[in-house]
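Thread: Newbie trying to understand structure tokens

Hi all, I'm a second-year student working on a class project, and my supervisor (Dr. K.) asked me to get a predicted structure for one chain before our next meeting. I've only ever worked with sequences, so writing a 3D structure as a token string is new to me. If someone could post the tokens and maybe explain what I'm looking at, I'd be very grateful. Here's the chain:
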Amino acid sequence: FNPAQYEQQPQIIVAYYMACLSDKTAGWDVFLDLHNALKRHRRQLGSDIVIRANVFMANYLVHSAHAGSSETKQILLDLYLDNVALHEQRKENIPAWLFDVITDMSFGLKGEHWVQQFINRYESHLLPDVRAGWLMYARARLYFYQANYPDAIALLANNQPFHEQHYFYTRPLMLYAYFATANYDAFIALLDTLKHTLTRRKNELAPPKFGNTAASSIAPPTFN
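---
Reply by user tm_fold:
Sure, no problem. This is what the structure looks like when written as tokens:
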């Protein structure tokens, strides 16, 4: 396959680099190939393939050896925000996972005020049947960021299920909040309940994620 032969069909070039990036041995050079092809041909591509390519690149970054660096996190956030903008342009709801991951990772990158603005702007873009639960969870994390543990506990303790694994989203945060507020009786009781629940439902949990040790040692790129 020679991408230079397909300049008039950029969707083939982008699809090719997406396939290459899916390989476990893919390095930063492949990431750059996809990123640069997407940037070069963006006006000729439909939003569907741009959204998919952004997800491919984001997944690669999440599993790369450089996933914990501040530069990689900023690139990752930019990819997620690009998809938010594309969903908004298409007058579509934002996937709950996308809203969740942006509000989660933005505390350290953008700060509390930015996260609150994002929540306020896009809360109506979540599907109505899951909106209340995900907004509760995002606001509970905002309280955590402020070290306002009593209000975080109040939200988390009285929530309605908003995800099939909502228990595993909310209870570890409550555990931390109980410990931070020296509510040790509640901490021990919840710890015991969580331990039994994990034993009973361990097959529902996603497998642990490890960095891609095959990734190139080249430092993550900076994009303008």
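A couple of things are worth pointing out once you decode it. The chain has a mean pLDDT of 85. The chain is about 65% helix and 0% strand. Feel free to ask follow-ups in this thread.
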